[in-house]
């Protein structure tokens, strides 16, 4: 497999000027807010002396990635090999594939290495290590792997005190692969409810990663990488001693889950879904739109937070929120807007044909429903450009 300029995996077009009024529902991005969000995290991590390896899984966009690196390629995290292949074809050569490895995907990993990409894979078992070692022996490509460590019982990874981490490293190195270090994702931070909890989650993530890396080093492995990160912990870490990089992705857009945790404010949300009012059910207190879950996703990530935001807050097209108006229900192509339960606010007058914006519960899930972003010109309020998104695995 060659990733030459001529054979690069294609996106659905490059950045292009907008043509006319987009059809609803569509995904709208405010580039000024994106730039502000990026600058905020970069400044914070610079103050802690640790580089950012941004996760492109939220935006899945070369145009957004350019904002992260001032137009030049830099180190990135991906969640699919499709992302790795597309970004590699556009000059990104330092890539971390941060999802547990399925062994049958190793031929694609090797192809990227042969095209000049330093692609790190993620494993948490001896079986995966054996597969990585076998392909390294067979191909002569020394595949680097990070060992995933579970710091909070969130999802996957080896337990911090499990000696299997050393066995994984031994299996990798014996077979000609590389045990490059450890990776942690403090997914439990999404359940934090105070600044103190977020700071504590970030410190636990850091300390756990450093401890496991030191155990690997004591066993004779270099383990140069300690990779940590989630959007909440990236914004609340007070100390990153021993950490070599921080990963985060949601921060480019933010969403109502992040606002509910206290990582950002609603004003920081850089992405929304524009929908059109198509009907009313006055006896039910409903406003009906053409944006159902196919446009916004079914994610209900704020349902367990102190304030449930339904399927999203509703804002006027020109910016201001409609007081206590939520998207509270969705079918495939219909959205239902109602006043928040218990509120004394009146249902606003939104005639048929009115366009409004739905602020997303989970930016990753909402973005995944769309092929492209319509990009706002903040000076005029019009859509100026179209940024394609990549899809697939």
Automatic annotation (TrEMBL):
SMART domains: D-ser_dehydrat. Keywords: Lyase. Transmembrane segments: none annotated. Pfam families: Ala_racemase_N, D-ser_dehydrat. InterPro entries: Ala_racemase_N, D-amino_acid_metab_enzyme, D-ser_dehydrat-like_dom, D-ser_dehydrat-like_sf, PLP-binding_barrel. Residues 1-24 are annotated as: Disordered. Residues 270-377 form the D-serine dehydratase-like domain. PANTHER family: D-SERINE DEHYDRATASE, ZGC:162816-RELATED. Belongs to the DSD1 family. This is Alanine racemase. It comes from Plantactinospora endophytica.
């Amino acid at each position: 497999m060659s990733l030459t300029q001529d054979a690069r995996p294609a996106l659905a077009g490059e950045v292009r000027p907008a043509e006319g009024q987009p059809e609803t529902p569509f995904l709208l991005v405010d580039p000024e807010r994106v730039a502000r969000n990026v600058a905020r995290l970069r400044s914070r991590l610079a103050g802690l002396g640790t580089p950012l390896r941004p996760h492109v899984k939220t935006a899945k966009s070369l145009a957004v990635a350019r904002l992260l690196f001032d137009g030049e390629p830099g180190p990135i995290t991906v969640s699919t090999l499709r992302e790795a292949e597309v970004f590699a074809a556009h000059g990104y050569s330092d890539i971390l594939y941060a999802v547990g490895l399925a062994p049958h995907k190793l031929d694609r990993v090797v192809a990227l290495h042969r095209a000049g990409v330093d692609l790190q894979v993620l494993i948490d078992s001896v079986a995966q290590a054996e597969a990585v070692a076998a392909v390294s022996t067979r191909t002569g490509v020394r595949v680097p792997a990070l060992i995933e460590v579970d710091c909070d019982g969130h999802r996957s990874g080896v337990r911090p005190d499990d000696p299997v981490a050393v066995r994984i490293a031994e299996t990798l190195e014996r077979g000609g692969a590389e045990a490059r270090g450890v990776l942690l994702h403090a997914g439990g931070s999404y359940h934090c409810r105070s600044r103190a909890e977020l700071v504590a989650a970030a410190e636990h993530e850091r300390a756990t990663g450093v401890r496991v890396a030191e155990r690997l080093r004591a066993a004779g492995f270099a383990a140069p990488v300690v990779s940590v990160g989630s959007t909440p912990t990236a914004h609340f870490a007070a100390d990153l001693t021993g950490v070599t990089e921080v990963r985060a992705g949601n921060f480019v857009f933010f969403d109502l889950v992040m606002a509910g945790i206290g990582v950002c404010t609603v004003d920081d949300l850089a992405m929304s879904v524009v929908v059109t009012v198509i009907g009313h059910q006055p006896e039910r207190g409903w406003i009906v739109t053409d944006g159902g879950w196919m446009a916004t996703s079914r994610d209900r990530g704020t349902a367990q937070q102190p304030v449930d935001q339904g399927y999203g807050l509703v804002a006027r097209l020109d910016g201001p929120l409609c007081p206590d108006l939520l998207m509270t229900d969705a079918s495939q192509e219909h959205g239902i807007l109602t006043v928040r339960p218990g509120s004394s606010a009146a249902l606003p007058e939104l005639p048929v044909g009115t366009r409004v914006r739905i602020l997303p519960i989970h930016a990753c899930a909402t973005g995944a429903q769309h092929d492209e972003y319509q990009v706002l010109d903040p000076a005029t309020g019009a859509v100026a450009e179209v940024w394609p998104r990549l899809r697939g695995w």
